[in-house]
TrEMBL record:
UniProt name for this protein: CHAD domain-containing protein
Gene3D superfamilies associated with the record: CHAD domain (1.40.20.10), Hypothetical Protein Pfu-838710-001 (2.40.320.10)
Segments for region (Disordered): 193-216, 388-408
UniProt feature, compositional bias: Basic and acidic residues: 202-216, 394-407
PROSITE patterns hit by this protein: CHAD
Domain of life according to the entry: Bacteria
Annotated SMART domains: CHAD (SM00880), CYTH (SM01118)
Length: 504
């Protein structure tokens, strides 16, 4: 069930020790209650909603617990929509009616695709003393809320008063009288238009100007921005993943890798009791995504190689057999992905991802400047790459199975370094971006090597299938032989790229 009403309220600033203003002669006070509330506000990455005077939140605790959307009206007031909050897996999902209303309110400004993903941008913890305000007849005409607020993730704290007319109350003239009475006692309207506006500070203005993070920003702010991007890359592609839209699986899988890597590389700034179980669940999703992605890569590579052979080297209908086998393999993997995304485990995972952004488990030096904390953690990750390289080069056969397995480990660790520098680049600038570029070269070459190794193994399986089906496997052997030459070339290029990346 959902409902709507016109919001009629005023907010006033109050210092922590200041006395409540007196309304004697205007209104009488009635019942008082204390509520402890947690409100998670959602917005796009560039804070599009708040910049258009739209707010969307999920509030836990208090008499109006549930989902709230506040939409601007032509007369300057705001329409408030309310919907009940669900429990269990999927509880963080915005109600469809609220989502449609927000999109309609923004009109042409509403983005599409991943850019439209709504993620937690602030969490307000409020201790509210709520008092009924009565008219001479004893009817409740308004509520007075004395709020003490803590805003996360910046940990801003303040106190404010909020006076809101009940829906059936008299007109807004009563609010004018309350404001005059408060002003006479030194209690003035708040400078901030809303709690969310105060929590976000200058972030909306910076977003509107397209300003990036700065090196002097807290490490937590830099990481929160990066984690938000990766979570959006996962939950913002659900429809495309189900439809098997081009490149959707690949991009979502990369987002899972980047997310897990960031939680690992920067784990000294996070409570691992929270993030380690989350990394495990993201790994489960990565596995679901990996199967159709790997099948897609092998299919495209094998078919591309077979179709690129000179006609005289294509013996029998080997292309048709390979296409049928590999297409069926991809279809089965995609079906398993969709099935997994339809279950409670996936819903619970997306809840956990959004909870991570709403209340990040920071610890240690997360509040220190980004340039003082983060580069050293990336260098530690680079040290793990160097150790893996030394183990690889200790093998007698640089292209043998053991060396190739160690190069795969090197590739994974190099990806962690690349992703980390990419996370830091918006704040730390060109030097971090150049480091990311060097490590990207490493991961691209070693990634191509891994694709060749996986495809070569699949070629051998296809050869056995072809022989069983009575289709000559000669062409598959030709491609496998060419790939063996490619492995030697890629291992040499990978070694050179790693050496360049590890240079001071």
């Amino acid at each position: 069930m959902s409902s709507q009403q016109v919001e009629r309220e005023r907010t006033f600033a109050l210092s922590d020790g200041q006395q409540l203003p007196d309304l004697d002669g205007l209104l009488r006070t009635g019942r008082s209650q204390v509520h402890r509330m947690r409100a998670v506000y959602l917005d796009t990455a560039d804070l599009l909603l708040i910049r258009h005077r739209v707010t969307l939140r999920r509030r836990e605790g208090g008499p109006d617990e549930g989902w709230h959307a506040k939409l601007p009206r032509p007369d300057g007031s705001r329409l408030e929509l309310h919907a009940a909050m669900t429990q269990g897996p999927g509880r963080t999902r915005v109600p469809a009616g609220h989502l449609r209303a927000v999109a309609a309110a923004l009109g042409p400004a509403w983005p599409t695709g991943v850019e439209a993903t709504l993620l937690p941008v602030a969490t307000l913890l409020t201790e509210r003393t709520q008092t009924d305000l009565l008219d001479d007849g004893g009817s409740v005409v308004a509520t007075l809320c004395d709020d003490r607020v803590v805003a996360l993730p910046e940990d801003r704290r303040w106190r404010e008063l909020e006076v809101e007319l009940v829906p059936a109350a008299v007109d807004d003239a009563l609010l004018d009288e309350v404001s005059e009475r408060f002003a006479a006692q030194g209690v003035l309207p708040s400078d901030s238009p809303s709690k969310l506006g105060r929590a976000l500070g200058k972030r909306p203005d910076r977003a509107a100007r397209g300003e990036s993070l700065r090196s002097r920003d807290p490490a937590a702010a830099v990481l929160h921005s990066y984690l938000s991007t990766q979570v959006a890359g996962i939950v913002g592609r659900e429809e495309d993943l189900r439809a098997d839209a081009p490149d959707a699986v690949h991009k979502a899988r990369v987002a899972t890798r980047r997310l897990r890597s960031a939680l690992r590389t920067f784990d000294r700034l996070l409570d691992r009791e929270v993030t380690d179980p989350l990394r495990d669940e993201v790994a489960w999703l990565a596995g679901l995504l990996g199967a159709p992605r790997d099948a897609e890569v092998v299919r495209d590579r094998v078919l591309g190689r077979l179709e690129g052979l000179p006609p005289e080297l294509v013996v029998g209908d080997v292309v048709g057999l390979a296409r049928a086998c590999l297409t069926e393999e991809h279809a089965r993997a995609h079906e398993a992905l969709v099935e997994g995304m339809s279950g409670e485990r996936y819903l619970a995972l997306t809840d956990s991802l959004l909870d991570l952004l709403a209340d990040p488990p920071w610890r240690g030096r997360a509040g220190r400047r980004a340039d003082e904390v983060l580069p050293a953690l990336v260098e530690k990750a680079a040290g793990r790459v160097a150790r893996s390289v030394r183990r690889t080069r200790a093998h007698d056969d640089p292209d043998g199975p053991e060396a190739l397995r160690e190069r795969h480990v090197t590739r994974r660790r190099a990806k962690a370094v690349r992703y980390a520098w990419e996370a830091l680049a918006p704040a730390l600038g060109p030097d971090a971006a150049e480091s990311a570029r060097r490590w990207e070269e490493v991961t691209e070459v070693l990634g191509e090597l891994q694709d060749v190794v996986v495809a070569r193994a699949r070629l051998l399986e296809l050869a056995a299938t072809a022989e069983h089906a009575g289709v000559p496997s000669f062409s598959l052997g030709v491609v496998a032989g060419e790939d063996r030459v490619a492995v030697a070339d890629l291992t040499a290029r990978g070694d050179e790229a790693v050496d360049r990346a590890l240079q001071p």
